[in-house]
Amino acid sequence: xxxxxxxxxxxxxxxxxxxxxxxxxxxxxxxxxxxSEDVAAEKQRLSSAIATASKSIQRLRHELSSxxxxxxTKIYDAQLALLHDQTLIDDxxxxxxxxxxxVEVAVxxxxxxxxxxxxxxxxxxxxxxxxDFRDVGRQVLSALMAKERSVYISGGQDYIFAAxxxxxxxxxxxDREHIRGIVTARGGKYSHxxxxxxxxxxxxxxxxxxxxxxxQNGTRVILDGENAVLISDPEEExxxxxxxxxxxxxxxxxxxxxxxxxxSMTPDGTxxxxxxxxxxxxxxxxxxxxxxxxxxxxxTEFAFMERKQFPxxxxxxxxxxxxxxxxxxKMVTFRTLDIGGDKPxxxxxxxxxxxxxxxxxxxxxSIDWPDFFYTQIxxxxxxxxxxxxxxxxxxxxxxxxxxxxxxxxxVISKDLEESGEEYSKDVQLGVMIEVPAIAxxxxxxxxxxxxxxxxxxxxxxxxxxxxxxxxxVANLYTPYHPAMLRTxxxxxxxxxxxxxxxxxxxEIAGDxxxxxxxxxFGFRELSMSPVFLPxxxxxxxxxxxxxxxxxxxxxxxxxxxxxxxxxxxxxxKEGWSRFMGDNRQDG
Length: 587
Ligand code: PEP
Ligand code: MG
Description:
23 helices; binds magnesium ion; about 15% strand; globular; 4 domains; eight-stranded parallel sheet; Enzyme I, Chain A, domain 2; eight-stranded mixed sheet; TIM Barrel; Glucose Oxidase, domain 1; binds phosphoenolpyruvate; 16 strands; about 50% helix; alpha/beta
């Protein structure tokens, strides 16, 4: 019988395919019965996974040896010793033989047994060992499942990815040819998984409660990304209706898509620069460079997250240079490492925090670990020789942080100068405005920076005190809140008065419902996932500046965000209808 589940809309579009459970968290592992003839092969899988985990721990230990005290690197020695502990390995083998299930099950059961024993001990040092078992177990499982995952998803069938969450590292593993949709039990519209789904153009819904418990692996489903509905086991009639709607939507998309080559100009001749947000060099293969006026946000941390260790300076130079060369005479904005929060690096373990998004993340980590930060800045400066690039700092909270980073940039430039290394002297330094505190001291920040870009995803989270990843409060997360609109207006006014380039690189820049309001506030640079560019351009080309200004003022008068959202949605619909009847085809 058909079951309808609701969630939060994350990326539009309709997908119809079997749902495949894909467990990102290591607590959920696939279990399958094996025969006694498979036991030897499973043992072999365990030995290879131990070797892989061991290599990655050694690499991490080596990389961090210059930054950690001898005492701290002993943590890795202890983990290596655990990993190769024969008693532990024998216990896993024994469990495997007893259960005759895949080896992941044996690892999980044995590790949890050890964990419990150590957690129950009186001695604090012994209790702490439980965490080491947990971590070693995770690493072995992760090595085992990484293999499992790639085999699993490249089976050649269309599928809808279902999991607790869609992790940034999953983006590197999915089989783009066959994935039709993404649905997750956790996450919010502005979590990184949802942003990735949108930039990949994959219909997606997040925050579907009890998803994996309610819809069985392999069930045929309809995913309606626009209306945030997932229908499992649909009736034939409903299926037919959705198939027709999907066709209509494809047709409309094709029409809007053509707009991308037209000029990005309001009908009264004001140019609005539309730039691209990218998560790595790989994304550039899918972007038509003549359609964008630059890269407004290069999230460098994604390239770091897909790797097993920190890229060296040379590797980073190569990566950044590729993007700069690709962009030609257009600007590339490299955001420095923005890890922490929901973007962990497996090889850089940060202590667990009660409130990670209010904790050690973004620029805070870069400032505390200057080695990595210096290497990244040096690499960007070197890669920029002969091209155009700018450096953007994430999660800036205070003016002193900006002063500090300016000094670092000067010191590194001087070093490069003295060593005769080729680098660009014109690399600009800018900040992301995503922590409300920095928006409130903007007058002090403006003289110190060359440009600014508003990270509205985090700004909404911090301004409204609503976790962008928490489905329980997803209905409270809204960029239409009057406090957010006033903040945007105030930033635009101050930047225009100070003649400082300001852009928006949060998700609202790519949301065409928002375009008239943003133009009305005075923004002339928007950076977005390229899939949204045609729709945003359509809106830019529809409304003259004065109409946008009036509209933005009207939006500011509402106290209820829902009223503003509805108003913006009507405006977008009107723009759409005008487009259907409009023949303005200048290039
Ligand atoms: C933002 O916060 O709006 C932003 C662009 O950065 P991220 O989504 O990567 O946190
Ligand atoms: Mg952010």
